[in-house]
Amino acid sequence: MIRAYCLLFISFIHLAVFSQDFTLIGNIRSENDEPASFATVVATSTRTGEVYGTHCDEEGHFKLRLQEGTYTFTIHLVGYHDFTTEIKGSDLEVIHRDFLLEENAAEFNDVMVYADKKNLARDVMKNAIEARAKNRGKDFTMTYDGYMKNSIIRTAPDTTVAGKDSTYLALKERDRPKITNQLYLIESLSKVHFSPPSRCHEEILAYQDFKVTRPSEGHSMSMSIEYGEPDIIPQQHEAVNNYQLKSRSGYNEFSLYNRLLDLPSVSEKMILSPIGAGAMLSYQFDLDEIDIIDSTRVYKIKVTPLFKSEPLFSGIVHIRSDDWALIYADLRLNDEALIFYDNFHLVQYYDQLLSGQYTLADQSLDYSIKEGHAQINADIDILHSNRTLDSLFKFDQESVIYTEDAYDQDSAYWDEHRFLALTENELKYVSRQDSLQALYGSEEYYHKVDSTYNQLKFMDFILYGVGYRNREKNYEFFLNPLIMQLNPVGIGGYRHRLGGSFQKEFPNAYLLETDGMIDYGFRNEDVRGKVGLGLTYVPKKFVRTFIRVGDYYDMINTYASLGSLFSRSNYVRTQTISIAQRMELVNGLFAEVTFDYSDQKPINNMEGDKWSQRLFGDVNTPISFDRYTKSEIRLDLKYKIGQKYEIRKNKKILLGSRYPDITMTYRKGIPGLLRSEVNFDYIELKAKNETELGRLGNMEWSVMAGTFFNKTNLRLLEHRYFRGSDPIFFSDPLLSFQLLGPTLSTPNTYLRGNYFHHFNGIVLNKIPLIRKLKLTEAAGCAFLSIPSQDFHHAEFYAGIERTFRIREEIFRLGIYACTADSSWNKARIEFKIGLNFFDAFHKKWQY
Q1: Measuring CA to CA, which residue among 566, 567, 569 is closest to residue 622?
Q2: Predicted confidence band at 5 (pLDDT cuts at 50, 70, 90)?
Q3: 363 near 379, Cβ under 8 Å?
Q4: How many whole angstroms separate alpha carbon 486 and alpha carbon 494?
Q5: In the 3-class helix/strand/coil scheme, how is 586-645 assigned residue by residue?
Q6: Which long-range contacts (CB under 8 A, 24 or more apart) does 665-668 make?
Q7: What kind and span of H or E run contains 72?
Q8: Under 8 Å CB-to-CB from 749, ≥6 apart: which residues?
Q9: According to the model, what pLDDT value does residue 332 have?
Q10: Tell me, what's the pLDDT at 795?
Q11: Range 90-108 average pLDDT
Q12: 3-class SS at 437?
C-alpha cells in the first residue's frame, strides 16, 4: 500500500519537473456507445515499472503525459472487463486513441453507465453493504493482543492573568491565554478472543489508572430508606466518570461491520453504520476520488447523513473494489444525536485475515465536552496486533478477567510493553501522580488521614456524622448526624432516631457488615429499634448470611405510593428475628432462603399528631387487626439468562444480559412452628426484559402472575400489595401504575403486565425546527387483572422527553398524558411529570 502511494507521488513530482516526451489523449466508451464516466486509467512503464494514473471525466475523456517508452495501459470501470493493451510513444508525439469497454455481468449485476459521481458512489456502497456480512464473516474466533490508551485533558482560560493584564478582557475568548491540565490517563494491555458479531473474552494483563484519589479526610452525609420491590441480586455500583468512555467488549462494539452500533454512553439511539443494511435510505454517498493501491482500486466515498438529528456518521470511507470491503473510515457522529459529548470522532483501519474476513486493526476515538468556559478533550487509541485464528477457544459468559497482577505492573513493565509513547504532558502527569501515590499510600499519611477523620468536631455531630476508621485493619464505623436523627413524620408524631453502621473488608474480599437503629417517640414514650449483621464469605458466588433482630414499625407495602409511604395506614409494629442465606448457584441463577419469625401488632391504639391527620387524610388510619405470630419461610429464585460478568480483584462484577430475567417467589406460612398462627402458600412468577429494536428505539416489558393456592389462615398483612398512584409524579412504568388510585392488595390470583417504549426521536427528529429541541417520544401501557374480585384495570400513556446534562450527570425529564379504564373507576386523563436517571455503571436508564 505505502509502496504504491510512493510510486504515484514520485511519478507526479517527476512529471511536474521534467518535460514529458509524449501525450496520450483518449476517449473511452461502453459497447453501448455511452461515455465510461470516471473510469480508472493506469499506465505502467515496462522498463522502469513507474506507475502513472488518472481518471476520465464525465464524458469519458482523459489526458495523460508520459515519458518516451513502452507502457502497459489498463482501463478499469465497475461492471466492465478490464481493458489492457500496450502503447509505445516517442518524443513530442501526441497520440489519440479511442477505447471500447465490454460489460462484465459477473462483476456487477444490473450495471449502469454512470452519468455522475453520485451514481458511482451509490453503487460502490450498495456492493459494500451487500458484501458486509461476507467480509465480516462468522463462525471463526480471532485472538489478538490489545493495547488501549485513554488520555483526557482539560483546557480553561488562564484566569490568573485577568487581574494583572488589562488587555485580557479585550481579547476574544478563543484568543485568551489557556491552561491545559491532564485529568486522566488510563492504559491497558490485554489478550482478546473475539468472534463476530459480539462474542468477546478479554483477559486484562496490565491495567493502570494513573488517577490518584486523595483519601477522604472528613465525613460525608448520606441517607436512605428501605424502599422498593426486593431484589436478591446484589446491587453493584462504583463511581463512574462519564468523561471516560469505557468499553465492555474490547472496543469491538465500534466496528462498522456491525450494522448497528449500540453505544449508550454516546447516543441514546443505535447508530447505523454506513455499510449497514438500510444505509442507502439514511446516507448520501458521493465519490471523492479513486486510488490504485497494490494494483487494487480503492474508492474514497464521502458520507453525508440525510437526517441531521439522527445518530448517523459523516466523513470518508474507503472501499476496495475487488471484494467491496471497508478498509478505512474517518467519521464524525451528528452532534445533535450526542447525549453527553459535544462531538465524537473515530478513525479506523481494517485488515484482512488469511481466512478472508476483515477485522479492526487500529482505531482512535476522540471527543470533547464543553464545561462552562472549560473544554474537556479525550483521545483514545486502541491498537490490535498478533492477530491469529484460534478455533479451540471456548466462549462462556465471562467477558473480562483481570489477572492477579494486572494492577501491580511497575513502570519498567509499561516502558517495555507500551505500544505508544507518552506525550510530554502525559509523562509529567505520570510523574506527578506517582509522587502523589507515594504520599497518599504511605503509612504516615494514612495515619494522619485516619487521625483527622477520627477527630470529633461540633459539625460532625450536627451535619456530617461521627465516624472512626482504621485503614491498617480496614474497618470503620459510623453514627448518623443529628440531621439524620430527626424524624418529624414518625409513627405517633416526632421520633428521634439514632442509627449507625460498621463494616470490615478482609484481604480475601470477605465483607462483614452491620447496620442498626434505635428511636424514641416522645408522644407515646415508646422505644423501638433493630439491628442486622451480615457476612459475605464467598465473594465470587455472593454467598452471604444475614441476621436481623428488632422491634420496630415496619412497612406493610415496601413500595407504596409517595402519598401514603409515611402514613400510619402503611405501618404495623413488628417484633422479629430473621435469617437469610443467599448465593449464586450457577452463573446467573441466584437463590435466597429466608426464615422470618415475627409478632405482628396493630398501631391503632397509638396517639398521633393532628398535622399528620391533616396531611394524609383518610389514608392515615392504621389497619385494624388482631395481634398474631407468624413463622414464614420464603424462597426467592432469579435467573439472569446469559449473564455476562468480569472478575476483578477476587470479585465478580455483573454486566447484565440481553435475555429476560426470570424470577420465582415462594412463601409458606408454617402453622404451629413457634406458635405460628398463619397457614398459607403463595407462588409468584415474573419475567422482565429490555430489548433494543435498532432504529426504532428500545422497549421494556414485564409480566408477572401470582396466586395463593392455600389460604387456610391468611392475614391481611400477607396479601399481595400493589403500588398506588401519585398525583403529578410519573413513577417507574415497569413497576407501577400511573392511574390505579390508592394502594391495592389482594389475597387472590392476579395477572399484571407493563410495557414501555422509548422511540428516541424516530418522528420528532425528522421535523424541521422541532428537531432542534431534541425531543423524543415515549409511550407505554399496563394492565392488572384480579378475576375473583371482578377487577380489571388498563392504562395507556404517551409523552415527550428531553435529555439533559449537568456536569457529569445525565437525566431525562418527561411529560406524559395518562389515561385509564377500570372496573372500579371511570376513564380519565391526567398529565404527569417524570424524572429518569442514567446509570453510568450499567450504561442504562432507570426505565
Answers
A1: 569
A2: very low
A3: no
A4: 8
A5: ECCEEEEEEEEEEEEECCCCCCCCHHHHHHHHHHHCCCCCCCEEEEEEEEEEEEECCCEE
A6: 665/634, 665/635, 665/636, 665/637, 665/706, 666/634, 666/635, 667/632, 667/633, 667/634, 667/635, 667/718, 668/632, 668/633, 668/634
A7: strand 69-76
A8: 705, 706, 707, 708, 786, 787, 788
A9: 95
A10: 95
A11: 76
A12: helix
Residues across the chain: 847
Which single residue is written with the C-alpha cell 431534541? 774
> What per-residue confidence (pLDDT) applies to 9?
35
Q: Estimate to the nearest angstrom the gap between the alpha carbon of 581 and the chain centroid.
A: 32
Could you tell me the CA-to-CA distances from 174 to 168, 178, 344, 371, 497 in Å, in that order? 11, 9, 21, 15, 55
CB-based contact 529:516 (threshold 8 Å): yes
Which residues have CB under 8 Å from 783's CB, separation 6+? 751, 752, 753, 792, 793, 794, 795
d(CA 603, CA 622): 6
Rounded Cα distance between 685 and 669, Å, is 18
Buried b (16+ CB within 10 A) or exposed e, 502-520: eebeeeeeeeebbbbbbbb
Neighbours of 214 (CB within 10 A): 10
**Kind plus residue range of the DSSP H or E element containing 433:** helix 424-440
- 799 pLDDT tier (thresholds 50, 70, 90): very high
Mean pLDDT, residues 794-805 taken together: 91
Residue in the block written with cell 474537556: 376
> Residue written as cell 416526632?
494
CA distance 428 to 345: 27
Give the CA-trace dihedral at 368, 369, 374, 380, to 10 degrees.
-40
Residue of higher predicted confidence among 839 and 785: 785
Largest Cα–Cα distance of the chain, in whole Å? 117
The pLDDT of residue 312: 93
Residue 165: pLDDT band with limits 50, 70, 90? low
40-63 confidence digits (pLDDT tens): 788 888 888 777 777 777 778 888
- How far is Cα 843 from Cα 237, in angstroms, rounded to an integer? 11
What single letter denotes the amino acid at residue 301?
I
pLDDT in tens, 822-844: 888 788 899 999 998 887 767 77
Q: What share of the chain is helix, strand, coil (3-state, %, to 5)?
A: 15, 50, 35
The CA R_g of the chain, rounded to the nearest whole Å, is 34
Q: What is the average pLDDT across 171-200?
A: 80
Give the pLDDT score at 441: 58
Question: How do residues 447-474 score in pLDDT, each as one tens digit?
Answer: 655 565 556 666 767 777 777 777 667 7
Distance CA 619, CA 504 (A): 42
